[in-house]
# Entry
Amino acid sequence: MAHERSFQDISLDSLVSTAERLKREGWRCVQMLCVNTDNGVDLTYSFSKLNELANYQVRGVTQGTSVPSIQNLFLGIFPFENEAKDLFGVDIEGMVLDFAGKFYAVAEREPMTILTPEAKERKDKEAKKAAAAAAKAKQAAEGGSAPADDLEAKLAGMDPEKAAKVRAAMEAKARKEAASSAQSEDDIEAKLANMDPEKAAKVRAALEAKKAKEGNA
# Structure
């Protein structure tokens, strides 16, 4: 006979009371499953009774959050709780059978919390996008976003290699514009040197006034 399955999210605070109710109603705890997510570790407790399989999920358990053991109600869950502690770094409190981190002989401590290079790159990219969005929102709240902030937000969302090429092209363009500006100033100075000194002084004053005005704008 096939089991009828159900899934229900519960809070961490209601875990023990839910387990106590299921114990009174004659359910068996058959497993506890851990899944590592970007928001923490999701815990799924599975209970069986006749042809029913009820799954209760506690989502987003972060490092340092204490999770109460339910071994005193369902002793058979001890391997799963020790696994959660050893492999995922979940802080299970009050275990009847606690192997103190030695249930598994592993080369790396809490190996299921270690990010792959691909997952780390994805998280870093998402963090950059979030930081750029936050900076943009702050700038807008203070009176409008700057073009540089908009550009950085776009670059943060790009493929890292492509973003690096765009930045390199922008830097090359800035250097070229700076060199062109310097050459233009040299040409002006050469022309002023050949002018009547009084007229040259007036032109210089006009140029400085224009530059100051552009800087204030």
Observations:
- The longest helix spans residues 160-193.
